[in-house]
Amino acid sequence: MEIKEHFIEGENVKSFVKSPNHSGEFEKGLPDTIVIHYTAGPFKPALNTLTNPRIRASAHLIVDRDGSITQLVPFNIEAWHAGKSSYGNRIGMNKYSIGIEIVNSGPLTKSGNVYRSWFGSAFNPSDVIEATHRNETQPRFWHTYTEEQIQTVYELCQLIIDNYGIKTILGHEEIAPLRKQDPGPAFPLDRLRNKLLNEERSTNEAAELPEVGRVSADVLNIRFTPTNDGAKVAMPLKKGAKVKILEESKGWYKVTTEVEGWVFAKYIENI
Ligand SMILES: [Zn+2]
User: pTM for the whole thing?
Assistant: First the structure.
C-alpha cells in the first residue's frame, strides 16, 4: 500500500466513496493525530451513514471485516468523525486528526449461548471476548476484531505516520470518554501506539544523532547547560579533541570526553 496525493492505494483498497461530510484542508502542520473508531455495526449501514449529507458524520477510512479499505475523505481534508471531543488542551479533535473506522459491533449482551449486539444480530462465542473497558471497572462482552483488520490498521497507521508526521494515536473513547466507548477493549490500541510511535521514535532519534565527533574550533567552551551563559564545566576543549555525543538540544550537543557538558554543535565535526 502507499499514499498518493492524499489517497490510499494498493491491493487492500476496495474503493473511494466520496463523503460530502467534511470541512476544508487541515491547517499547516496538521493532522498530527490518528483517532481509531468502530462502526458499531456492519459495513453497509456504516458506509451509508458516513456518506449521508443529512447525518453530518464521516471518517477518512473504513476497514471492513476482511481488512479491505474504503476511503471517504482525502487525508488532507478534515473529516467529521470525532464530534464533541477534547484531548489535553485541544478542543474539537476533527481539526487535528485522521479518523479510521473499523467495522465492529461493539459491546454484546449474552442470552443463553448467544451474544447479541445493540441492533439484534447474534454472534458466536468465537467472535466475542470478555474484557474491561479502560473507562469502566467491570468486564463486559465485546465483538472481536479480525486479524485482517488489525493487520490492515497497523499498516495504515504506519503509512499515515510516515506521510503526515503523526505523533499521537488515540481512541474515540479517550477524546470523548463520557459519550463514546470505541474502539473498546477488543482493539489492541495500547500495543498499536507503543509499537508504531514509541519504538519508531527512539530508533529514528538514535539514527540521526552521530555517536562521536571532533572539536573543529580552536577552543570550545563546555558548559553545564545548552546555553551561551551556562557555567563552564572545565577548561575549554581543544581543537581535534574527540568527543562522544550523548544528546542534542537546539543546536547544542551534550558530549563527554574526560568531562561532560554542553558545547555549541556547530564546532563539532562528524568523524
Ligand atoms: Zn467513534
Answer: 0.74
